[in-house]
Design goal:
The chain is of the alpha/beta class. Helices cover about 30% and strands about 25% of the residues. Strand 4, helix 5 and strand 5 form a beta-alpha-beta unit.
């Protein structure tokens, strides 16, 4: 993908989340079936140890509250590019009963985003990686296969246990396929982007447009193989159709 096209799509999504953050937060309060099922894959720490969780693309931090429901001692780190969503995440997690949450802003399109982890409080607790790393509904907003693959590789390096990814399967739904906005809306053409790329509208509270890519099972399996990860499980859940998100559970290949 041309670097100028990539920059335009990334900037579109930055503006999208700046514009819709409060409304987006209100639609992301509930525990979806897919996220709830992810709790089954969270490793249980041994006696005297804390569970460590890294949530990349954490949004309003709702998964921290979900981890808190496990009643295990834990440290949660949330990373997101939206300052407004991170501020809301801080508010939503002040009353955690069993753990502590740290949040920081980072541009996941830039390879230096991982360096900020070194300066986090209790950063030595993550020196050997996190027990559970998740990246849900985030890869789909990174334009270009190479950029998405790079992030998966970075997540793999931060994982000492389980890596969970999810991707929106909007092309499997007629109601979303018919909502696609022409690329000319933002001055691009279909030839500028990759198969599976789309522009979709947001109409809850106000109108906005975001870039999204459908990562199907084939693409996720290819990325996993290239990053020396094995897929240990997968399932689909969520949305009115009950299957709008594809979740995959990954672990490092055993040499």
């Amino acid at each position: 993908m041309d670097v100028h096209v990539r920059h335009a799509l990334l900037e579109l999504n930055r503006q999208f989340y700046t514009t819709v953050a409060p409304d987006f937060d209100q639609t992301r309060q509930g525990w979806t079936p897919g996220l709830t099922r992810l709790l089954e894959y969270v490793p249980r720490p041994t006696a005297g140890q804390q569970l460590t969780v890294l949530d990349v693309g954490c949004g309003n931090g709702r998964f921290a509250r979900m981890v808190d429901s496990l009643e295990l001692p834990f440290t949660y780190v949330g990373v997101d590019g939206s300052e407004k969503l991170l501020a809301l995440a801080q508010e939503h997690t002040v009353d955690l009963q069993h753990g502590v949450a740290h949040f920081y802003r980072a541009d996941l399109a830039q390879p230096d985003w991982v360096q900020a982890l070194d300066s986090l409080p209790a950063g030595d607790a993550f020196a050997n990686g996190f027990d559970f790393v998740l990246c849900t509904a985030t890869l789909q907003h990174l334009p270009g296969y190479d950029l998405r693959r790079r992030l998966v590789q970075e997540l793999s390096a931060l994982t000492n246990g389980v890596l969970a990814l999810s991707a929106w399967q909007f092309l499997s739904s007629e109601r979303f396929r018919t909502r696609q906005i022409p690329w000319s809306h933002i001055g691009l053409a279909a030839a500028d982007v990759e198969p599976g790329d789309a522009l979709l509208p947001w109409k809850q509270g106000q109108f906005a447009v975001r870039y999204v890519h459908q990562l199907d099972e084939v693409e996720l399996r290819q990325m996993a193989a290239e990053c020396r990860l094995r897929m240990t499980d997968q399932f689909r859940a969520d949305g009115k159709e009950g299957d709008l998100n594809l979740y995959v559970i990954l672990a490092a290949n055993e040499d």
